[in-house]
UniProtKB/TrEMBL annotation:
This is DNA excision repair protein ERCC-8. Keywords: Chromosome, DNA damage, DNA repair, Nucleus, Phosphoprotein, Repeat, Ubl conjugation pathway, WD repeat. InterPro entries: Rad28/ERCC8/Ckn1/ATCSA-1, WD40/YVTN_repeat-like_dom_sf, WD40_PAC1, WD40_repeat_CS, WD40_repeat_dom_sf, WD40_rpt. It holds the Pfam family WD40. It is found in: Chromosome; Nucleus matrix. Part of the CSA complex (also named DCX(ERCC8) complex), a DCX E3 ubiquitin-protein ligase complex containing ERCC8, RBX1, DDB1 and CUL4A; the CSA complex interacts with RNA polymerase II; upon UV irradiation it interacts with the COP9 signalosome and preferentially with the hyperphosphorylated form of RNA polymerase II. Interacts with ERCC6/CSB (via CIM motif); promoting recruitment to lesion-stalled RNA polymerase II (Pol II). Interacts with KIAA1530/UVSSA. Interacts with a subunit of RNA polymerase II TFIIH. The gene is Ercc8. GO terms for biological process: proteasome-mediated ubiquitin-dependent protein catabolic process; protein polyubiquitination; response to light stimulus; transcription-coupled nucleotide-excision repair. WD repeats lie at residues 96-138, 183-225, 243-284, 332-363. Substrate-recognition component of the CSA complex, a DCX (DDB1-CUL4-X-box) E3 ubiquitin-protein ligase complex, involved in transcription-coupled nucleotide excision repair (TC-NER), a process during which RNA polymerase II-blocking lesions are rapidly removed from the transcribed strand of active genes. Following recruitment to lesion-stalled RNA polymerase II (Pol II), the CSA complex mediates ubiquitination of Pol II subunit POLR2A/RPB1 at 'Lys-1268', a critical TC-NER checkpoint, governing RNA Pol II stability and initiating DNA damage excision by TFIIH recruitment.
Length: 398
C-alpha cells in the first residue's frame, strides 16, 4: 500500500489504482458468512473440490466424496435479498458415467464453459461435455488420482497434468487423447499439481516425498529445479533429506495471480512462499498452519487485491493470511466439520467453501452503511464557536 501511495504522489501511477486496491482490500477484510444466500444442498457426503468458471464467474462446479458432481448457478435470478443458488444439473449416483469413488478435483476448461474435467479415486480423469453431460474422453491410470490441472494461459498445448499414487507425473494431451508423456523425479505419490499462470510450459508438483519440483515440459530432462526450504544452507551432515520443501507431505500448491510466487502447504503444519523464478524460499513466517489432510488440500489466493490474501482450510475454519507478510488476518467460522476446499470469486471478491459437513457456504464482504449525500440541518451544530463565526459585515448593516 505504501508503494502505491508513493507512486501516486510521484505521478507514476493511476490515482484510481490506489482507490481500487484499498476498496478491494477492505472488501476482503470484511468477509462474513452470507446469511441471505444459500447454496442448494445436493451432496450426501463431504465436498472435496470447487471451481468457478473464469469467463463470467457465474457457474460453479463441486465434487464430492460420493462421486457426485454438481453445477450451480451463482447469479441471483430472483432479484430478492434472500435467495438460493440453484443446482442446474448434477452427475448423480444414477448417472451411467458417474465416478465410482470420491471426486478429488473438478476444473472448468479455462476458455469456455462448454467443457469441464473431473478426477477421482476411481483412477480416472474424465473430460465432460457440459451440454450433453456425457464424457467426451476418459483417461485411465494405474493408481488413485489425487489432483489434476489445466493451464489457464496455454495457447500452444492442451496438456492436463495429473498427480496420482505413482511418483510419475502424467501429462494427458486433449488433442491426441494420449497420456504417454510422463515426468520422472519424485519418489512418492504426487498429491498436488499446478501450472504457472505466467508461463504456459512451467508446471509445479508437490509430493508425499516432501519435495516440490518445477518442470519445463518442453525439456527432455524436464525438471528445472527442486525447491529447498533452507536455500542451500543446510549442512550436508544433517539427517534431513536434501532439497525438501517441507518436512512432511506436500499436499497443496497455488501460484499468485502474476505467477511470480508459489505458495505451498505441507503436513509439517507449515506454509511457505517461494520465488518461482529463482526457486528461493522467501522465508515469510505464517506460523503454524494446521494441516491434517492426508490427500490434496484445495486453498485459494485472492485476485485483484492489494495486498493479496490466502484462504486456507484450517480444521472447521478458513484462515485468511496476507501472502507477503504472513499475517493471520482472521478466521472464518461457519462450517460444522473439516473444510476441504475453497475458491475465490474475483468479480465481487467473494469466497465459497466446501466441507465434510456436506455444505457449501458463501462468504461476502459486509455491506457498508450508506452515507447520505445531503446532511439534514438537525445534524449541524446550532451555535458556532465565536472563533469560527464570520465577523465581516456589509456596509448596509452599519
Amino acid at each position: 500500500m505504501l508503494g502505491l501511495m508513493a507512486a501516486r504522489q510521484a505521478g507514476l501511477d493511476d490515482p484510481a489504482r490506489l482507490r481500487r486496491a484499498e476498496r478491494t482490500r477492505s472488501r476482503v477484510l470484511s468477509l462474513e458468512l452470507n446469511k441471505d444466500r444459500d447454496v442448494e444442498r445436493i451432496h450426501g457426503s463431504g465436498i472435496n473440490t470447487l471451481d468457478i468458471e473464469p469467463i463470467e464467474g457465474r457457474y460453479m462446479l463441486s465434487g464430492g466424496s460420493d462421486g457426485v458432481i454438481v453445477l450451480y448457478d451463482l447469479e441471483n435470478l430472483s432479484r430478492k435479498p434472500s435467495y438460493t443458488c440453484k443446482a442446474r444439473f448434477s452427475v448423480g449416483r444414477s448417472h451411467p458415467d458417474v465416478h465410482k469413488f470420491s471426486v478429488e478435483t473438478v476444473q472448468w476448461y479455462p476458455h469456455d464453459t462448454g467443457m469441464f474435467t473431473s478426477s477421482s479415486f476411481d483412477k480416472t480423469l474424465k473430460i465432460w461435455d457440459t451440454n450433453t453431460l456425457q464424457p467426451a474422453d476418459i483417461f485411465h491410470f494405474e493408481g488413485t488420482v489425487y489432483s489434476h490441472h489445466m493451464s489457464p494461459v496455454a495457447t500452444k498445448h492442451c496438456l492436463i497434468a495429473v498427480g496420482t499414487k505413482s511418483p510419475k507425473v502424467q501429462l494427458c494431451d486433449l488433442k491426441s487423447g494420449s497420456s504417454s508423456h510422463i515426468l520422472q523425479g519424485h519418489r512418492q505419490e504426487v498429491l498436488a499439481v499446478s501450472w504457472s499462470p505466467r508461463h504456459e510450459y512451467i508446471l509445479a508438483t508437490g509430493s508425499a516425498d516432501g519435495r516440490v519440483k518445477l518442470w519445463d515440459v518442453r525439456s527432455a530432462s524436464g525438471c528445472l529445479s527442486t525447491l529447498d526450504q533452507h536455500n542451500g544452507e543446510k549442512s550436508k551432515a544433517s539427517s534431513e533429506a536434501a532439497n525438501t520443501a517441507h518436512n512432511g507431505r506436500v499436499n497443496g500448491l497455488c501460484y499468485t495471480n502474476d505467477g511470480l510466487h508459489l505458495l505451498t502447504i505441507g503436513t509439517d503444519d507449515r506454509m511457505r512462499l517461494w520465488n518461482s523464478s529463482t526457486g528461493e524460499n522467501t522465508l515469510v513466517n505464517y506460523g503454524k498452519v494446521c494441516n491434517e489432510s492426508r490427500k490434496g488440500l484445495k486453498f485459494a489466493i485472492s485476485c485483484g487485491c492489494n495486498p493479496e490474501f490466502a484462504f486456507v482450510p484450517y480444521g472447521s475454519t478458513i484462515a485468511v493470511y496476507t501472502v507477503f507478510t504472513g499475517e493471520l488476518i482472521t478466521m472464518l467460522r461457519g462450517h460444522y466439520s473439516t473444510v476441504n476446499c475453497c475458491v475465490f470469486q474475483p468479480h465481487f471478491q467473494e469466497l465459497y467453501s466446501g466441507s465434510k459437513d456436506c455444505n457449501i457456504l458463501a462468504w461476502i464482504p459486509a455491506p457498508r452503511e450508506p452515507v447520505p449525500d445531503d446532511i439534514s440541518e438537525k445534524f449541524l451544530p446550532q451555535h458556532l464557536n465565536p472563533a469560527y463565526e464570520d465577523a465581516w459585515s456589509s456596509s448596509d448593516d452599519d
